[in-house]
Amino acid sequence: MAKDLNTEQKIKEAARKVFLKKGFAAARTRDIAEEAGINLALLNYYFRSKEKLFRQIMEESLHTFFSSVLPTMSDPNVSLRDKVPFFVNSYTDVLISNPELPVFILSELRNDPDHIVQTLQMNKRLNLSVLFGQIMEAQQKGEMIPLQPWNFLLNLLSLTVFPFIARPLIQRLSDTNDEQFKQLVEERKAMIKAMVMGYVFTEKGKG
Amino acid sequence: MAKDLNTEQKIKEAARKVFLKKGFAAARTRDIAEEAGINLALLNYYFRSKEKLFRQIMEESLHTFFSSVLPTMSDPNVSLRDKVPFFVNSYTDVLISNPELPVFILSELRNDPDHIVQTLQMNKRLNLSVLFGQIMEAQQKGEMIPLQPWNFLLNLLSLTVFPFIARPLIQRLSDTNDEQFKQLVEERKAMIKAMVMGYVFTEKGKG
DNA sequence: GTCTATAAGCTGATAGAC
DNA sequence: GTCTATCAGCTTATAGAC
Predict the structure, then answer these.
(1) Total domain count for chain A?
(2) Residues A103 and A22 both lie in one domain
(3) Fewer CB in 10 Å around end: N or C, chain A?
(4) Chunked in runs of 10, what are the mean pLDDT values of chain A (207 residues)?
(5) Tell me, in Å, how far CA of A11 is from C1' of C8?
């Protein structure tokens, strides 16, 4: 810390670090103040309360987590077959850079789902109707096997995100370091694309 | 509450409910006592401290989460091709009955990974060497494509567990009820088996 | 804007009566 | 074993000096 950031930025950066590591309930404002190298009173001066500070961090985290891929996924001019590799490559890279994001978001989702869902929906980028429309269209043309559109999206999300959620378990049980974990998820990129596309697209859809 | 359980059992059942819903840090011993219909002092009388009570709940949760499938997965007499459908069917059913378990375990994994890993390793059922040995053997025989054994296991876990982690998000965004969510994951059973096996097994391996 | 000092309330845990 | 009453410590937030 103590870079050439103004006080507000220092507090926010410290808050992000502490909240992402511990979650809202276990994080203490004292930890954040200390991490930022400022006094506890300043935190309330700038952000009014712990909860208001937390919400700002959460909203920015959601933005990082979703806005890197959602615009393209919602673009009707990008074909379904092009969306799959784009999603897997982009998302894996975002998660390599922000490995704590999934657990942070998904565990706070349990405590205050409404805040997260509302933030997502205000962020207009979330428009699943285009993607789901493409899926149903491909199914009508016989290019894709019948399955619920949500299950298509869930397959992509599951295979890409889950390893980052289980990361502490994986690394300890397999006794591997961060570099080896990165290799593991890099290997997954090609695998996920092949698995998802190989399963859902019919011969006609592949041609 | 207030069934014909003894006091210790009542406290444990209440603790499980509160801890799984809120996590360790956000749960208050007062909540647990109230939920159990007993006085706060009794909680300490039976379990000494909040943390000791929590650890018991976590250890039992890990047992539920893992011991339903691990013995079979570690059984050398069950073939790899039989393990896949067994895993997907059993695990999905366990999760339908205990939908809060994955978020609980995976979010506490962030706070105290050592406790969880140690508990798992003491629980002798966790023996991945058999499964990984079968994978490498199948690869040598040309029945399975080359991939890191962990990625095979991760595919199964991801596709099966992740929907339960993202459940609050899925149900709100798709505006569906619990029954419809159950239908979604039931549809996934056959899909996951087909996807995982279709991808990893070669023609030789399928025959 | 930034600090020190402190208020106000909550939380885990215990003492002691029954 | 179970209760009421209470303590000691911590946590968020604010008052007020500089």
Answers:
(1) 2
(2) no
(3) C
(4) 80 98 98 98 98 98 93 96 98 98 98 95 86 98 97 98 98 97 98 97 85
(5) 25
